[in-house]
Write a structure and sequence with these properties.
With about 400 residues, the chain is an alpha/beta fold. The chain has helices at about 25-30, 45-65, 70-80, 80-95, 100-110, 115-125, 135-140, 160, 180-190, 235-245, 280-285, 310-315, 330-340, 360-365, and strands at about 15-20, 65-70, 125, 145-150, 160-165, 170, 200-205, 215-220, 220-225, 250-255, 270-275, 275-280, 290-295, 300, 305, 320-325, 345-350, 350-355, 370-375, 390-395. The longest helix is centred in the first third of the chain and has 17 residues, at about 45-65.
């Protein structure tokens, strides 16, 4: 008998049942001072310690009854199917840097790999020196330390490359070239893994740039989407059109945020910790605005901008949205925001996972009655992402009324 799996996420805080994680692997060991900027890491992580921290994070979720799925294992399963292998290899060899001869060599090399090794190469990359049979002009002119297929250390942050909205998945369109192959892999999993048979995407990676870290499901029917360094206004409009048209929401809030690395996504400055409570970076609480987008027949209606907390509460049917303003001095607030203090993952209402190093932010959460599960993240955080960034919820219970 075929098992039927449920996939549905309608809020940030309904009890978490199933989550997709990526345990960091060999791709982290391929970060060097020479390539870390290109691959979007601010420091060279200690890979072994990062794995230990990630294992502890996954265990903390399991201890609370959450089913943890690993991206690598799902990818290996999907690559058992010839059609999925063909799609994966075709996507990788479509690289204008290579030239015909190198492309033919790489294709032959990849086709000889079993699913487990192919998955590893797609994630950890293929170094120049690993293609033992390499020859030809392009191959010979490459630096011996270059990668023919780049590693994907950013895959650690599974929130960005896909996001569930209701019972449909948005396979996102990532803005940074170094990260674009990530959504090809998640798209492959959702299209070919038996667990996701029949799942209909609500967004595809070929569309305008949208990243999952900018998508907040404030309540059933209300989706906030940040637009800044990664998600474009055109991406917000396209996602709004798709989500509203599919009946997955009645209101999409477009939320402009500063276009800089410290605030690369909406979830770096604001996350939800209860059905009516947000944790927010203090300088943003009064300055963040939102444009309410609704469907009017086949067209989008865009309201005038309003303060974010006010517009969100109105769309959610609340008198007001409670704010945990960390109330920190400016230096501490800036440090803890940089260290992902606002990037919490709610496992259930009033129960959140946070990095242990954000001492002041966590104290403010607990003072407001939020239980905090502290995890270590000294190495995991080198790519600028916290517990929410590292997790893609696939199934949550509906939030309590």
């Amino acid at each position: 008998m075929t098992h039927t799996y449920e996939h549905r996420v309608t809020s940030e805080v309904g009890r978490l049942r199933t989550v997709l994680l990526h345990r960091p692997g060999a791709e982290l060991k391929r970060l060097t001072p020479r390539n870390s900027d290109k691959l979007l890491f601010d420091a060279i992580p200690w890979a072994g310690r990062a794995q230990e921290e990630h294992d502890a994070f996954a265990q903390a979720l399991r201890d609370r009854g959450v089913e943890v799925l690993y991206l690598t294992e799902l990818l290996q399963d999907a690559l058992e199917y010839e059609e999925a292998r063909d799609v994966a290899i075709a996507g990788v060899i479509d690289d204008g840097r290579w030239g015909d001869q190198l492309r033919k060599m790489v294709e032959g090399y990849l086709r000889d790999l079993d699913p487990e090794v192919l998955a590893q190469v797609l994630i950890a990359g293929l170094a120049h020196e690993e293609l033992k049979a390499g020859h030809g002009l392009v191959y010979r002119l490459m630096d011996r330390h270059d990668f023919i297929i780049d590693p994907l250390p950013g895959l650690l942050f599974t929130r960005d490359n896909s996001a569930w909205i209701g019972d449909r998945v948005a396979v996102t369109s990532l803005a940074m070239p170094a990260r674009r192959p990530e959504s090809a892999l998640t798209g492959l999993i959702y299209a070919h893994h038996p667990r996701f048979a029949g799942v209909e995407p609500v967004y595809e990676r070929s569309l305008e740039h949208v990243e999952g870290g900018d998508i907040l499901l404030l309540s059933p029917g209300v989706v906030a989407v940040g637009t800044g360094e990664r998600t474009t206004p055109a991406g917000v409009e396209r996602l709004a059109r798709r989500v509203l048209g599919a009946g997955l929401a009645h209101t999409v809030l477009a939320v402009p945020i500063a276009q800089k690395r410290a605030t690369m996504h909406l979830d770096t400055v604001c996350t939800m910790v209860d059905v009516d409570t947000v944790l927010m970076y203090p300088p943003m609480a009064s300055s963040l605005t939102a444009y309410a987008v609704t469907a009017d027949g086949g067209e989008l209606r865009v309201a005038e901008p309003r303060p974010f907390l006010e517009a969100a509460a109105d769309a959610m049917g609340l008198d007001r949205l409670k704010l945990i303003d960390t109330g920190l001095d400016p230096v501490t607030a800036e440090r803890e925001q940089w260290d992902d203090g606002n990037n919490t993952l709610a496992i259930a209402p009033r129960l959140a996972v946070a990095y242990e190093r954000n001492i002041e932010t966590n104290a403010q959460l607990e003072a407001a009655g939020i239980e905090v599960i502290r995890i270590s993240g000294s190495e995991l955080g080198t790519g600028r992402g916290g517990p929410r960034c590292m997790s893609c919820p696939i199934l949550r219970d509906p939030p309590p009324a």
